[in-house]
Design goal:
The chain has 435 residues and is an alpha+beta fold. The chain has two domains: 148 residues, Up-down Bundle (Four Helix Bundle (Hemerythrin (Met), subunit A)); 275 residues, paralog of FGE (formylglycine-generating enzyme), CATH 3.90.1580. It is built from nine helices and 14 strands. The strands form five sheets. It has a four-stranded mixed sheet with strand order 12-11-10-13.
Length: 435
């Protein structure tokens, strides 16, 4: 997104909020009220909690903080504070029911649109370029992705549908890996108007040259690791990862099972053959790290990933996206839940970076070797709980987004993070090696 006139900013904010709410409705209307209130996995909230939390966050930041209005339902604030109650405990809370949650979120949104029409999008850090409206649109889309994960975890007949990605167009990648030159580049951003605090500020990083996979690691490649007893060889695993797979008898990516010599997977209620050409999905950081060691490679650092994605050697500058500064289109990347699966490795040549690396945006979140840490000069904004409380070695950084990520919450500087044991997320990886 680029800055522009106030009316253009209002239109962008309204469009982003509308797109998010349409997706929220599709994800919550797809199941019965009983399934909305059920907990489909202790790892996730009931869908009805996410729905009301979206409305509560919107009310807190836009109606109370920006407009200065009194709380609509102050008694529910503790129920929808993400730090107050762990996900596993949320079904026991006196949550709003489906009808109440829908009504509440709708009433908040109606007032927010009135606010957007008459609020100057300048004058404070929260309002400049419509930042706070963009923040709320991103927050809702992030919860939409969370709800899509819940849909993947639920049992029963499929309730979601989407067309498969088109086969790759144009020539495939010429090489399996790309050399990224050494030297400085600009990491992060100080100008992207809706960037979140952990993406800021822009700063220079100087890296040694390295090689990085042209495309993410595929299911077929990961099956070679399994067939070579990768899950049974302790030498490939970090100690905590080895303990994790032994304790939980993990022998393949989440949702995979072997039947009659064939690997199958469950995807949104459908059982299908594991597709060889797709990027591998639902692997933990430990699994990604073990595969990289087995392949005599390593995971790229976060800085290496971003340089491969943003550095243009012809100009020496860092672009907003791998393909340049233009907003994503369906020709560039698999985003926005247009499909319910990654596209085949080698897809989207129009989305390749200046160096020729493909599918850095969309398809699968990519684990990196890096801990989630602040950039030099980091300043928490507008609240510590978005990023700062998660900094440290407990969380690993993921980059690039997935098919489940909306473009509003995905860019070359966007940083995601999670615990290295997480597998239910739409996570894959690519590998690197020193030059």
């Amino acid at each position: 997104m680029t800055t522009g006139s106030t009316e253009s900013l209002r239109e962008r904010a309204a469009a982003a909020l509308t797109a998010a709410r349409l997706r929220t409705a599709a994800l919550t209307d797809a199941v019965s009220d009983a399934e909305l209130t059920a907990q489909h996995s202790p790892l996730m909230s009931p869908l009805v909690w996410d729905l009301a939390h979206i409305g509560n966050m919107e009310e807190l930041w836009l109606l109370r903080n920006v407009a200065g209005r009194e709380a609509m339902r102050p008694e529910i604030d503790p129920l929808y504070d993400a730090f107050e109650h762990p996900r596993a405990e949320r079904p026991k809370l006196p949550l709003l029911g489906p009808a109440e949650a829908r009504t509440y979120a709708s009433e908040v949104r109606g007032r927010v649109f009135d606010l957007l029409e008459r609020t100057p999008l300048e004058g404070t850090a929260l309002l400049d370029s419509g930042y706070v409206f963009g923040m709320i649109a991103q927050h809702e889309q992030q919860h939409d992705e969370t709800m899509l994960i819940t849909h993947q975890l639920r049992s029963g007949a499929p309730v979601l549908a989407a067309p498969d990605p088109s086969p790759p167009r144009g020539p495939g990648p010429a090489t399996s890996e790309v050399l990224v030159p050494g030297g400085p580049f600009t990491m992060g951003t100080s100008v992207e108007p809706w960037s979140l605090d952990n993406e800021r500020p822009a700063h220079e990083r100087d890296l040694a040259p390295f090689w990085i996979d042209t495309v993410p690691v595929t299911c077929a490649e990961f099956q070679e690791f399994i067939a070579d007893d990768g899950y049974r060889e302790r030498r490939w695993w970090a100690p905590e990862g080895w303990e994790q797979i032994r304790t939980h008898s993990i022998e393949a990516p989440l949702f995979w099972r072997k039947e009659g010599g064939q690997w199958l997977r469950r995807r949104f209620g459908v059982t299908e053959r594991v597709p060889d050409e797709e990027p591998v999905l639902h692997v933990s950081w430990y699994e990604a790290d073990a595969y990289a060691r087995w392949a005599d490679r390593r995971l790229p650092t976060e800085a290496e990933w971003e340089k491969a994605a943003r550095f243009d050697p012809a100009t020496g500058r860092s672009t907003r996206y791998p393909w340049g500064d233009a907003d994503p289109t369906p020709e560039h990347a698999n985003l926005g839940q247009r499909h319910l699966r990654p596209a085949r490795a080698g897809s989207y040549p129009a989305g390749a970076s200046a160096l020729g690396v493909r599918q850095l945006i969309g398809d699968v979140w990519e684990w990196t070797a890096s801990d989630f840490l602040p950039y030099p000069g980091f300043r928490a904004f507008p609240y510590r709980e978005y990023s700062e409380v998660f900094f440290g070695p407990e969380h690993k950084v993921l980059r690039g987004g997935s098919f489940a990520v909306d473009p509003v919450a995905c860019r070359g500087t966007f940083r995601n993070w999670d615990l290295p044991v997480r597998r239910q997320i739409f996570s894959g990886f690519r590998t690197a090696r020193d030059a």
